[in-house]
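Comment thread on ticket #2218

A.B. wrote:
> Attaching the input chain for the structure job we discussed in standup.
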Amino acid sequence: MAWRRDDSTAPRGQLRIYLGAAAGVGKTFAMLSEGHRREERGTDVVVAFAETHGRPQTAALIDGLEVVPRKRLEYRGSFFEEMDVDAVLARKPQIALVDELAHTNVPGSRNEKRWQDVTELLDAGIDVISAVNVQHLESVTDVVEQITGVVQRETVPDAVVRAADQVELVDMTAEALRRRMAHGNIYPPEKIDAALTNYFRAGNLTALRELALLWLADKVDEGLQKYRAEHDITSTWEARERVVVALTGGPEGDTLIRRAARIAARASGGDLLAVHVTKSDGLTGANPANLARQRQLVESLGGSYHQVVGENISDALLTFAKAENATQLVLGASRRSWLLALLTGPGIGARTIRGSGPIDVHIVTHSQVGSRWRLLPRYRGGITTRRQIAGYVLAVALAPLGTLVLASDRTGINLTSDTLAFLVAVIVVALTGGFLPAVIAAIIASLLLNYYFTPPIHSWTISQANNALALGVFIAVGLVTSWVVDTTARKSNQAARANAESELLRTTAGSILQGQGTLDALLERTREAFGMRSASLLERLDPAGGAGRGPAGEWAVVACSGDAPVTRPDDADVDVPVTDTLSLALAGRPLPADDRRVLAAVALEQQRLTAEAEAAKPIAAADRMRTALLAAVSHDLRSPIASAKAAVTSLRSEDIAWDDADTAELLATADESLDRLTHLVGNLLDMSRLQAGALSLFPRPSGLDEIIARSLDDLGPAGRDITVDIPDNLPAISADPAILERIVVNLTENALRYSPAGKPPLLAASALGDRVELRVVDRGPGIPEGDRDRMFVPFQRLGDTDNTTGVGLGLALARGLTEAMDGTLTAEDTPGGGLTMTISLPAAPGN
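C.D. wrote:
> Ran it. Output below, let me know if you need it in another format.
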């Protein structure tokens, strides 16, 4: 019975994936079994692509299912079979079984990757059941390589698998999988021993199995979070242990993080989340250095760091914990003293416990418990010294002056007016000098108000309760107002400092991006930011002139910005030690400790790292060369060897009687293949010697016409069609004839390859001063100017799609050999179209 789907506007199909830890766990078997189950229920199922790997049990499951014929593609002389996407779309079943989701299709296929084919099927409304191993997921390929030592070439983006409607784990213990391997149920007998001793070691399989389980657990957790959000579920479901640790930026944070990590480690797969709650103004007073260090500690323990904004710390912590479905919350014991706790009420810990619900709250003690004993926060003034002095002067002067003015007219002003007048004076002092001057002003004003204006006058007693209340309110308002003013000024200064530091970093980064030296730019910005005359970075030298330690060493100026650089730390207004041998010296004025930013030290380390990186570039280039060599010559070495091997094997075969023509053809094939191999190996060896500086050259006066004649002979019949234009009076050149002959052959072969029929290349020579130029001209398609330098890089063959005719060493070797003889090789456009390669060599002395 033929099944068809009539709806042309079907919704997007559903994707089901069988995930395994390694080959042989039974993914394809499970996929085909599910196909049979669906078909038995009356569903239209086809096998779009299934790879049995020669396993009879798996192949038997294909019987009874409709199989869509595969598409046959030719690539590099061989034929490959891929899934025929067009045929599946035309067939349009309800369910398509597609194996090996991470497979890379043969070039020329509809899509590069099979998962892209699957996406097309899903978009057409076809449900897909597929299979993939965990090592093919992009996010874990580096981990798999570290575990197994095998680089995964075929990968599938995690987002594709995560977007699947169903992901089912096909699991098997490492011991059971190794038994399957030993019984020959996975690989053929000749591969079993190698697999068991390498990739399929018990440790490798166990690690891959754990990766698959953890990845699927994350996928399940995503589905759980989505379900909770869709159904507005805010209560905690203890499906997985999640430990949230609250950080304040205090020194106790390290203790809390380690304790929370131990709690999370008690349950396998537990998560550790660190959270810091900051106020909406962003100026919480938390120590940024502590938070940065604690963030690194959390991440080193496998946790994650988060920062949330909230005015109420307890509510913010609980909101975050519930949103993350946390099971436990770790807080530090309060640093407040018992007296402060008694006066200010319950702390964050107590309020968090009351609202925690099913979340367990751990209060962890630490060395900082009870260290904050003050009733009021530590005073950190935000007012400048000049304003504070002015505030003290006003505090001492305003209250007595106001007393004289108010005491002279007792009939028209009552106590309320007197109190308000003194309150204005306290506010003026607070606005001018900040908290401490305002406190002094409030005390003086309250004493004078009590003695001169509160009945009984000229007495320190207060007869009426109303007057006592007014006096108390006056003092409280004065203190609160002064504290608010001082806090506002302090936070304004912090904001200004933060803005200045941000501007400093922005301008410094801009200078660096514009090409200015990193260290010089940082020193200049540092000097400008702090208003110094000069900023110098000094390095201690030992008496012998090398970098060393000890007080007897001399100092050298590494870099300087500004006028009159400081040459010794002792002569600087500000000396900031960077390391044992480095010091930042600033001249101009003393700076407070908070302003001693050692930005220059970071720049120096960056500069030294840059120098090390520059030194490592040749090593990296050599490594890239080796990698490119192995990747590029794999085909070119195999092809001639395989051809010669096949020819010789055929000749030695006793089953076939070859005639003379066949024997000659086979011998010619072997000879040609060995010549190709000899030419390739020679080029590789020459390139290696050239890069190592070990290539021996013997330059001597030589005639260019003789060298060109030998080069054309080397080209065989193809060289007869080449046009040569060599003047009779051309001077001799100074070059190694054998090396120059190889250069000409390489360039001429390249020109022949791209020259159109009927337009052979031209070899033309001319003298230009004390040099001789040889031009190899072709009428081919030419090369864009932007690609001309790249075509001289080894293993680059511009416009080619395969390596059947070489590995791209010809031009690179030609340029290297030319430069080794004090010559140059350049490329330029041929007038009228094409490419001209010009060799310039010095003329021989005495011409």
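A.B. wrote:
> Thanks. Noting for the ticket: DSSP finds 24 helices and 24 strands in the chain.
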